[in-house]
């Protein structure tokens, strides 16, 4: 074969290969990809397994992939810090949970071994503790990544402690979306009033909540019913979460979740806010349903 024809053939084949590669290669995900890691463990307090144990159950989603690697590198350390603390940042995803659980087990022994050593062998004290944690993605599109952390902890108090915290990340910057990013200047008073009205409404609808009849005579911590930064974003609303004892009377150990539909807060939102596209989509959906 003529040398020129051979080179031309090779060039054409190379062009075809490169074209096919760029057309059919897997594209980077538009949203954040996550990987679920779980760990279950148990630590007995002594060789006598009836004396108590610490039970640990953890299931967390770790962000693993995003089209913008720089943004991912900003978000992931923040989530790990919120889950287990800064000191685990240098560890791999697989090992950091193991190290965290090992520390929980060591603390359980250290905190209780002095007590258990003084017990008479015929005593009935049982020191059972538990720690469970979930980390999970909620809203996850090309604009916003919302991450929630649920903890149930029982370290021997009157009630187990259950908390939920949420973190909404702007995928254009990698920064947390704060209330000041969403609402117009001076929003606090109106947003506080909306939240208090919603809590009052919920208290009259839910049987397990103490009724809030008015804001002057109440067992609620009324000053705490205000924007607290603990909210998650979804397709229809901003949802505020108040953890147990945060706003309710002390003898009521439950959380309160308040949903603020976009239609109720539209006038409080600043122009160009990170959720503007969700508000517009919600309005379009409502208009379509009404027609």
Give a structural overview.
Strands 1-2-3-4-5 form a 5-stranded mixed β-sheet, covered by helices on one side. A 3-stranded antiparallel β-sheet has the order 6-7-8. It has helices spanning 3-24, 69-84, 93-117, 179-182, 188-205, 262-265, 276-290, and strands at residues 33-44, 53-65, 129-140, 144-154, 161-170, 231-233, 237-242, 256-261. The protein has 7 helices and 8 strands, in the order αββααβββααβββαα. The protein starts with a helix and ends with a helix. The longest helix has 25 residues, at 93-117. The chain is flat, with a radius of gyration of 26 Å. It is 36% helix and 25% strand. It folds into 2 domains: 33-177, 2-Layer Sandwich (Heat Shock Protein 90), CATH 3.30.565; 180-285, Heat-shock cognate protein, ATPase (Actin, Chain A, domain 4, Alpha-Beta Complex), CATH 3.90.640. The protein is of the alpha+beta class.
Write the layout of secondary structure elements.
Blueprint: H1 3-24, E1 33-44, E2 53-65, H2 69-84, H3 93-117, E3 129-140, E4 144-154, E5 161-170, H4 179-182, H5 188-205, E6 231-233, E7 237-242, E8 256-261, H6 262-265, H7 276-290
Please state the CA-atom Rg, rounded to the nearest Å: 26 Å
The percent range for helix content is 25-40%
Unreliably modeled segments: 20-26
The overall average pLDDT, rounded, is 87
